[in-house]
Amino acid sequence: MKHLLVLVLSALTASVVFAQPYTADRHLARKVPCQACHVTGDTSVPVRKQNCLACHQSYEVVAQKTKDLKPNPHFNHYGERDCSTCHSGHKPSVTSCNQCHKFDLKTP
Asked: CATH fold of 18-99, please?
């Protein structure tokens, strides 16, 4: 029984280590509490860009951080999109540009 428990715990630990973290996981790892994004405390309400920019400063600052990506997803023909267009807190994020284009961008 003890051996089985060790195997199960090892498998769970391995899946956590190798799983692609969601945006919320990345924030929690940096000690950012849920309320920093969900300012009303209501997790059923989508997080809006102004909540993101409370910590990430401005869309221009974010675009500067991704300036070496080709193309820069934060400097595009749509302008300042809502962050949740691509970034999802509790599910895999998407590269919304790929609805029309085929870019090799990884969206955290």
From this structure: Flavocytochrome C3; Chain A, domain 2 (1.10.1130)
